[in-house]
Amino acid sequence: MATNKEETFLQLRSKKFPVVLLDLGLPPYPESPRVGLELLKELVVQDPLLKVIVITAHGQKEVAQAALSMGAYDFLVKPVDDEMLLSLLRRAAWRCSLESAWLSAKREELPTSMVLESEAMRRVAEEVRRVAPLEVNVLVEGESGTGKELVAQLIHSWSKRRGRPFVAVDCAAIPVNLGEAELFGAERGAYTGAVRRIEGKVAQAEGGTLFLDEIGEISWELQAKLLRFLETKEYSPLGGKAKKGDVRIIAATNRELDQEVERGKFRLDLFYRIGQMMVSVPPLRERKEDILPLARHFINTLSREFNVPPSTLSKEAEKVLLTYGYPGNVRELRNLISRALLLANGGVILPEHLGLRVGESTEDVGISAAKRGYDLPRAKRALEEGWIREALRRHDGKITPAARDLGIPRTTLYDLIKKYAISI
Fold first, then answer.
1. Which domain range does residue 347 map to?
2. pLDDT grade, residue 31 (50/70/90)?
3. Is 75 helix (H, G, I), strand (E, B) or coil?
4. Measured between alpha carbons, how far is residue 356 from residues 182, 319, 343, 395 in Å?
5. Domain termination residue (choose one: 49, 74, 107)
6. 93 and 150 share a domain?
7. Are 28 and 65 in a shared domain?
8. What span, in angstroms and rounded, lies between the C-alpha atoms of 283 and 298?
């Protein structure tokens, strides 16, 4: 709390505040709003993002209007209603955080949902800045839900191809028999059921970037055709003539592709072609500095999406978020916040809204197993089974979202459920 102009600016220099509550009746003339209005003018000039809520005396409608015209966020009339004040403070802080995130992203040319608080993610951004201008294919590696598509978008936006199309393909969702048509297109009548011409993703991305998410899921046959395109820049739509294509390939995987090569499930020559440069995105548990900024970002964006009042995180909820293990990474954090927002309904988010307990962490499963004298294979099985049960519990036994959080194909999850005799 500051009692004069000097104290106000001293506190603002020592700490960043999103909102200032300003009583216009300041000394040495508390009966006049003049000193308060002068301070308001200086505050908004010094920090345009700062939200200043002014408090005026009853009957000072003209003063309130003058304050708004000078840049005040809103005003309250004495006597101040506590509930209204709290609601206004929340709205002002929410608006400030939104504008700060937008400006930060604009300054760095980042996707607005990308957070670079941690040193690990700053290193990723520096790596992206280095490879983006180069006309090489890039392989983005990382666990499911870490934000690999955002990294791909960042590579595109920092490349010479920005302004041209960015086309994303979920390779895991392409039916095996339609993979070639999905990527390279098909003429009408090229196969049974082809009642119209299909424009492939390569053609849609012409001049820009084609992002192949989860490239480890494509069939061996489609791998061969993709390799030929990368080598010759030429492709043929099903039933059509050969064409030239100018696209940059950015691929992503949550698998160890070099191990897939050893197993004979992924072509070595294609691995080298798509991985001319590699960028690795660390899991959320290894960049804990990003957790709370990401949580606040999701609160801001999801509250607008759900049309609910923005909430704030309690200290207890922050502690829970910081100690959880996040097997589903950033995607799982988003799901936790969406659930909490709906339950809190504009109030303070508490641990029970998140559905987690203080200190709960999936990392602890392996540690506790080791302490009980487990050998490493048994500890691995205990950890795997624990994560699977937790993912299924979070998604009410639904296979597809649970598999997505775990970063494995649905067929693999079915096999593991059978292996561990898990009932769903």
1. 285-419
2. low
3. strand
4. 41, 11, 14, 14
5. 107
6. no
7. yes
8. 18
